[in-house]
């Protein structure tokens, strides 16, 4: 059994899981308390001890992921709910971020897919200062790679409605963190769009839904002035062009132009160049007057 976990004679996997969960809980409580204890002059020593203890806390989750007998059912019914309950209740920004990241890294992809709603439901409950956009982006990244590496699991993504669950979670997290910078919110939509383009490449309606979610977040903000947020908006608009290589199809999406309306003149001009480059690179034939008009409406006019 990994990392020295020993079950007494007559014990079983339930006993082992309970032992590790209790160990995880108590060690994390100690780790959280340590950052608030001790004189300032011992800060360096205390930080070293906290770093070592943090690694041990994470190893408890690794042990749980490696225990023989911890199948999907036990993970879904016992392990994940208990771990998430403690993470939410500890109310420590550093611990919450680290432990959510650990869950994503150490447990199998199929476990994440089959417990996606439970895992995502914890995200809006974390402290407002937790970098939850990175946690969710990593989860979407991991599951999209899982789908790409194992195309046979794609029906499962549809069955569990992964896209719908991620979409709802993005909205809930943004609402739960009203002070989240605009760049963070747009980054979440970029991550969600990347997920769609990898897992549901045939669903242009999903692409439009993602763009529409971003439009709602941008409502009332006028032209985006923040440079980092603007960069993410350009990434959001460029991704479907790079994937589908068809400007006309992309510009027909009802929300594509609405996102572009929030770009300032200079950035809108950059996107116009990107559109032209896509037309030239992919030898796109614009054969009807209405398609010419559609493309022309995307070019910026200084007002």
From TrEMBL:
* InterPro entries (UniProt xref): Vps35
Question: One GO term of the cellular component aspect?
Answer: late endosome
Q: Name one GO biological process term.
A: retrograde transport, endosome to Golgi
So which residues are the signal peptide here?
none
Q: Which domain of life is it from?
A: Eukaryota
Q: Where are the transmembrane segments?
A: none
What name is this protein filed under?
Vacuolar protein sorting-associated protein 35
Q: What is the native source organism of this protein?
A: Ceratodon purpureus
